[in-house]
User: What shape does this take?
Amino acid sequence: ETGVTQSPTHLIKTRGQQVTLRCSSQSGHNTVSWYQQALGQGPQFIFQYYREEENGRGNFPPRFSGLQFPNYSSELNVNALELDDSALYLCASSLGQGPLDTQYFGPGTRLLVL
Amino acid sequence: AQSVTQLDSQVPVFEEAPVELRCNYSSSVSVYLFWYVQYPNQGLQLLLKYLSGSTLVKGINGFEAEFNKSQTSFHLRKPSVHISDTAEYFCAVSERSSNYQLIWGAGTKLIIKP
Assistant: This one.
């Protein structure tokens, strides 16, 4: 059992709205990464947080933002939703940031934008 | 930029037969290689990873993968599959130059025929 949880499991929004997705990391894991997985594709890296600071970002616009809290929880916020934002959003937690640190994934939040 | 190609979107195989899932990456610089499995409605789970050393890596559930630097490949194998291996398998690469961000392939669906 990975211990990483995400909420909600499913969400429906309309174009232009804003959404907040939540993730609870394994206790003691200082790093959280967020990914977008469109249907039929592999995950795409959105950004990573280490000890509450953004530590790396993929090719996503600024309307994708995040927060990490001291209690090992984190949020992904998406503003001005577009139809193409429909996807499975995954968070993964790890002890550190390097390849030695296994990332443990949550089950994801499936977002549908109409 | 680094990219990962999983050559087969679906691989059907009979139960108890061997299977190979193919993965190629684009860059020949020092990389770290991973295979993850995604069971239906579950989060991604690490199967195995190559960081250094022996090119043959053994993972969970009887899977193994071989790192071939000259062919930039990291194919996943299992000598005898079981119905419970039905899942989607993702190959991923990370390297220090991109702060160890995981770059993912599009996935291969393993379909076990009884």
Observations:
- The interface with chain A takes residues 4, 6, 32, 36, 41-46, 49, 51, 90, 92, 94, 99-107 of chain B (CB under 8 Å).
